[in-house]
Design goal:
35 strands; 27% strand; alpha/beta; binds MU-OXO-diiron
């Protein structure tokens, strides 16, 4: 039975997942499976982008037939001839004999090599920047040699800003029902697999990947459709940044990746001690036993971390076999621009240190530390000083912030004047959310832009606010930007009551709009609004800091935004002298709430606006 995914109204994923494959390309373990993506563009001329591996051919052909729904398949664009994408091409052409093949000359040569197919009259051979109009869409072909084979090309749909990127921007891992990267927690659940895919598949070809990135930067890119993994329609810049780092061999993290080969545990013990002492100095470490960890994982880690330490026993007068394979593999994948140290072990003739060094010396821009540690069977008590020297040598090359020189006793006497927080130039906002069909809102002064591209903001929300709980449950909210002409009534409506027992929108319908996410935004006394979707949150005790991606934003009118200072000076009514005479106690400087009593408890929280005792003054 078919299992397709709709990407846009006229673009359909017709690929398939394989969770039974043990070793991708016969080399890389894929415990979480792999997807083989193919895409069908339905237009006046219907175009298929690539085919799939033969292991999933049955599903692919069912998907394609369903997506075509009786229409002709006019073209198949072949972007990459590796059989994980082209193995079913021959069967495709048998099933759809009228389909023409769009490819470049190198691809045509490979089709003939793999299938001995005569494509006379069936092949449209394109050159770089050639275009093909399918009716509403205009496709442009860009060559991407060595990403991952020499014949690779990618296709840019100028109409929609979609890049069909072949192997680039792919990832290991089956799709498991999702199709877009923003449907899953990509950073936490898939980024390691994306890195492992990149480093092992195209890691060797950094300059060629950079050439493709340069071409892609010149495009108005809205979506990326790779041949493995998820479709990208949001936060493309984040993934681009990763590709820039990986293709320029720039470490993502500062710290030490320790890979060791240990037959009887003594080399491992030394690696443990080094890792422990590095941690004592505040240096991050990760450790891998090369005998049991797939090389592809260690290669990905080597691309991630800034420092590499290899520790190996001597074996058959050489490097231990799995370590030797790993080092040759790393060199073959062009690892470069790292700081490297070695530990060798040998009971009678240790040679692994020298031999490991020779392999790494063949890599570009490596800083190799002189302090190679030599073990004779096991770490001798007298060698702890050598361990310290090696650890210090590594630590000395790691840039870090110096611990600030602070006189703790002087710091203890320092005062914090809460009035300083009122001098900040932040604005005031109506934060709105919804749960169980109930709209609610509150006033905040803690919204700020985090990044402009992509558009991200952060808000800190008091946990006592009902709106806070709504956002925690739904992950979406709106922010309406208050203007200088906002009335105090608006602040009272949203700031001085709790939504738990009040309908803050009662009698206010004519002053609200609804954004595409279904939430309200305020149109009275505001000048703009934006909608946002939470992508991360941090618990800070009394407040939660939400990091959110902007999904909609509009300017409502041209009016200056209100600042906290302007509100106090011009909007908030001055305390009434009559009330001051009649009441004894403390008045909240924020909302005017009066606490009656001789002593204000230091942990008192204003029941209306939720500000603390520091914001009260004696009447
Ligand atoms: Fe996914 Fe290079 O093939």
């Amino acid at each position: 039975m078919y299992c397709t995914k709709k990407i846009t109204d006229d673009l359909i994923w017709v690929g398939a997942n394989d969770r039974r494959l043990a070793m991708f390309e016969g080399v890389y373990s894929v415990p979480r499976g792999v997807s083989y993506n193919a895409y069908l563009l339905l237009d006046d001329i219907n175009v298929l982008f690539d085919t799939v591996d033969k292991a999933v051919g049955k599903t692919f052909f069912e998907n394609l037939a369903h997506a075509l729904n009786g229409k002709n398949l006019d073209f198949v664009v072949i972007q990459h001839m590796e059989p994980d994408h082209s193995a079913t091409l021959m069967e495709l052409l048998l099933r759809y004999p009228n389909a023409k093949v769009v490819c470049n000359q190198k691809i045509l040569t490979m089709i003939q090599q793999f299938f001995q197919l005569d494509l006379s009259g069936k092949a449209f051979v394109v050159k770089e920047n050639d275009t093909l109009s399918t009716g509403h869409h205009k496709l442009k072909f860009l060559f991407a040699p060595m990403v991952h084979w020499p014949e690779v090309m990618v296709t840019y749909d100028e109409t929609t800003g979609t890049l069909f990127s072949a192997d680039a921007f792919g990832t290991f891992g089956a799709l498991n029902g999702a199709i877009f990267a923003d449907e899953v927690d990509f950073e936490n659940e898939y980024m390691d697999e994306a890195r492992r895919y990149y480093c092992n598949i195209v890691g060797k070809y950094g300059p060629q990947v950079q050439s493709l990135l340069k071409k892609a930067h010149g495009l108005d890119l809205k979506m990326i459709c790779p041949l493995h993994g998820f479709v990208w329609r949001r936060n493309l810049e984040d993934y681009f940044d990763k590709y820039v780092k990986w293709s320029t061999y720039t470490p993502e993290e500062t710290g030490v990746m320790i890979a060791y080969a240990s037959v009887y545990g003594n080399t491992e013990n030394t690696a443990e001690i080094i890792s422990s002492r590095l941690r004592d100095l505040g240096v991050k470490t990760v450790m891998y036993d090369v005998s049991v960890t797939p090389a592809s994982e260690i290669i990905a880690a080597a691309f991630k971390w800034s420092h590499l330490l290899f520790a190996s026993t001597t074996y058959n007068a050489g490097i231990f076999v799995s370590m030797e394979e790993l080092l040759h593999d790393l060199a073959a994948h062009n690892i470069q621009n790292r700081t490297v140290a070695f530990v060798e072990n040998g009971s009678w003739a240790p040679t692994s240190g020298k031999l490991m060094r020779q392999i790494i010396e063949g890599c570009k821009d490596m800083t190799i530390l002189n302090e190679t540690l030599t073990l004779k069977s096991s770490l001798a008590p007298g060698q702890l000083a050598e361990i310290d020297a090696l650890v210090k040598a590594i630590s000395d090359t790691i840039p870090r912030f110096e611990k600030p020189m602070i006189d703790e006793s002087a710091m203890a006497e320092a005062k914090i004047d809460p009035a300083v927080f009122h001098k900040f130039s932040y604005g005031l906002f109506v934060l709105t959310a919804q749960a169980d069909s109930k709209d609610n809102g509150c006033i905040i002064n803690t919204a700020a832009q985090l990044t402009s591209t992509p558009g991200r903001i952060n808000i800190a929300v008091n946990k006592a606010n009902y709106t806070h709980d709504m956002i925690l449950h739904t992950g979406v909210f709106n922010v309406s930007v208050l203007a200088e002409d906002a009335s105090f009534d608006t602040f009272k409506r949203f700031g001085f009551a709790s939504g738990k027992d009040t309908d803050k929108f009662a009698g206010f319908a004519e002053h609200v709009g609804r954004s595409k996410n279904g939430l309200t935004y305020v149109t009275l006394g505001t000048n703009a609004f934006l909608s946002a979707k939470v992508i991360d949150s941090y618990d800070y005790g009394t407040h939660t800091l939400f990091i959110a991606e902007v999904t909609e934003a509009a300017v409502l009118r041209d009016a200056p935004s209100v600042t906290y200072g302007y509100y106090f000076e011009h909007i908030k009514p001055k305390p009434q002298p009559k009330i001051e005479e009649e009441k004894h106690g403390y008045v909240c400087k924020i909302c005017g709430y009066v606490y009656e009593g001789d002593t204000l408890p230091p942990d008192f929280i204003c029941p209306l606006c939720k500000h603390g005792a520091a914001d009260f003054e004696k009447i």
